[in-house]
Amino acid sequence: MDKKRILIIDDEENFCKLVKKNIEQAGKFEVDIATNGQDGISLARQIKPDLILLDILMPEMDGAEVAAQIRDDESIRNTPIVFLTAIAKEEDSDSQASLTKGYALLSKTATLRELMACIEENVRRYTEP
Amino acid sequence: MIIIFTLIGLAIGYTIAIRYQRKRTPLPQKLPPRQHSIPPPDSSCLEDKIWYEAELDFLFKFNEKLSMSLTFQDAVRCIAAAAHDFFPVERTVLLIWDKNSQKLTLACAIGWNHEDSGGPLVIGKDNISGFVIRNREALLVPDLAQDDYLNKMNKEGYLQKTFISAPLIYNDEVLGVLHACDKKTSGSFTQREASVVMNIVRMGAIALQNIRLYEQVSKRAAELKIAYDELKEMQDKLIQSEKLKAIGQLASGVAHEMRNPLGIIMQGVVYLEQIISVQEKEPHETLSMLKESVERADKIVIQLLDFSRAAKLELHPEYIDSILENSLGLVKKELKNIQVASDIQKGLPKVSVDKNKLTQVFINLFMNAIHAMPEGGKLTIRSFLKDDSFQDGEKGVVVEVEDTGTGISEENLKKIFNPFFTTKGQGKGTGLGLSVTQNIISMHKGLIEVKSQVNKGARVIITLRTSNE
Q1: Which chain A residue is nearest to residue B294, measuring alpha carbons?
Q2: Which residues, 6 or more positions from A6, have their beta carbon under 8 angstroms from its beta carbon?
């Protein structure tokens, strides 16, 4: 069985690299990285990932805008998106809550177990609707 | 012709004279004495000299007593008593004049009870007191029965036979009238005695006016003090809430920025944990220390975010005892060597609160109490209903959380609600707990107060409004 592909879109390159290493360590997933919103969308169109880990606060194009463009694109609109957030709970910020409504959220300081559980749950939900 | 004019002239003159006579106000038979000072003694008369010295001594003592009277009523009593004791007389009555209502009010009566005699408590101007006030002069009446004019005017039960009536005048303003009636030794008052009364009323008027001014100033000062206190309290609240808002915004910004590097460190630690063999103990120990630190920093960030969270309350009528018991259950494993005394009253009225936020408040308070008792101690939790808890007179449900711990110094007590103020050691507290607590309580329009003495523990008193449902 082919490995599932995960795309991380986050302007913190070091964060992306480490998350990539940690996810790939488990052997189930292959991870691609984009460090800005525009590159992320292009890459998503190209590789059609099974899940996108998307940072909310990014310069130029923020996570909400990236998500909106992905949902507007016929070819990738059904890709599950997990928002990477500095804020753990949905209720924490009104503006964030409205932006990320309906999306899964994952804290940036999540442990490996939390990270993998979140990825697996959202990939499964996508593949077994 | 000349005769006719003369006759007409006489007729007109006569009419005018009659009219004038009819209009003329009749004067009392006995003219009041106009003496305002004690006549000097007759140096040739020994009796006069002794009398003069006795007067001076009496007035000196009276003045001393009068100047120690701090209230209007005290001064009134002092004046009446002086006049009463000097002669002495059967009855002394002091009435105070109110120029706005043009009425006299009984201020002090000695030897006469207005209720027994059916006499007036408040009287108008058409009587002997009114006459004294109108004329602004004292009366010395040796025998009222002999004085038709005054006798007709007399409606005052205390004026019976012989009396001195003197107005209290200060700076041209009439303050009242003093009556000293019927000498106990019988006989009429002498001019000398009248002059003593004149001195009593003169000194008395000055004292009364001063006390009036003093009372006005005191009242004004008290009003200003209240207004100032209210303003100060409002300003403090405003500053506190602005401060909290600013810190909230800052905290939220900082929290976002902190989480990115923290995320990188965490992912790095996770990665290293996986690639370093479990056999290599020391690197793994180092990694778990790193991990612990990241988690601690993360906790602080979460608290900052809690702090800055938008003030939204979900109010529902709740029983305080269930929130308290639930909160206590959540800190149970931290209690260790701490004994809990619970005096939580059942069946108190419901309070309108946000259950989650209030749970956060009680957990904060319990944890503070636990941290204040590292060697163990007693945690007391009370709840009860209290009347008149709020300024609007509403009753409130009071919760007290008391510990027997280290206590808080007077100086620190002023700062405990300040954000980031903490006495806990480095890395042990963010100093936001009580600040958040105060914020939540004030959002509920409740009250929070902390009482404490060093080494005698601390007591936090929270008062919440009861629910109308």
Answers
A1: A109
A2: A23, A29, A30, A31, A32, A49, A50, A51, A52, A53, A119
Select from A12, A22, A108 the Cβ nearest to the Cβ of B270: A22
Burial per residue of B29-45, b for 16 or more beta-carbon CB atoms within 10 angstroms, e otherwise: ebebbebeebeebeeee
Q: Does B264 contact A22 at a Cβ distance shorter than 8 Å?
A: no
Say whether the peptide bond before residue B142 is cis (omega within 30 degrees of 0): no
Q: Which residues contact A77 (CB under 8 A, 6 or more apart)?
A: A70, A71
- Give the Cα-Cα-Cα angle A33, A38, A40 (nearest 5 degrees): 25
Q: What is the pTM of this model?
A: 0.47
The residue-averaged pLDDT of B346-365 equals 89
Give the residue on B whose Cα is nearest the Cα of A88. B302
Give the residue from chain A lying closest to B298, CA to CA.
A109
User: Do A36 and A53 touch, CB atoms closer than 8 A?
Assistant: no
What is the Cα–Cα distance from A98 to A69, expressed in whole angstroms?
A: 17
pLDDT exceeds cutoff 50 at A92: no
**Which residues from B are below 8 Å from A87, CB to CB?**
255-256, 259, 305
pLDDT of residue A95 exceeding 60, the answer is no
Q: Which residues of B touch A (CB under 8 A)?
A: 252, 255-260, 262-264, 266-268, 270-271, 273-275, 294-295, 298, 301-302, 305, 309-310
**Residue B162 pLDDT > 90, yes or no?**
no
A88 vs B contacts (CB less than 8 Å): 302, 305
Angle at A110 between CA B295 and CA B354, to 5 degrees: 75
3-state secondary structure of B460: strand
Cβ-defined contact of A108 to B271 (cutoff 8 Å):
no
Measured CA to CA, the distance from residue B295 to residue B298 in angstroms comes to 5
Contact check, Cβ <8 Å, B259/A108: yes
Cβ neighbours for B142, distance < 8 A, ≥ 6 positions apart:
B30, B162, B188, B189
Q: What is the mean pLDDT of residues A80-96?
A: 63
Question: A86 vs B260: CB contact, 8 Å cut-off?
Answer: yes
Torsions phi, psi of B224, nearest 5?
-65, -40
Angle between helices B433-443 and B191-275 (to 10 degrees): 120
List all residues of chain A from 60 to 89 with a beta carbon under 8 Å from chain B. Answer: 84, 86-88
Instruction: List the single residue in B263, B268, B309 with the smallest CB-CB distance to A108.
Output: B263
- Full DSSP string of B53-94: HHHHHHHHHHHHHHHT--SHHHHHHHHHHHHHHHTTEEEEEE
Lowest mean pLDDT among B28-32, B273-277, B406-410, B444-448: B28-32
Query: Distance between CA atoms of B167 and B105, rounded to whole angstroms?
Result: 14
Strands B338-344 and B377-386: parallel
Q: What is the pLDDT at residue A125?
A: 72
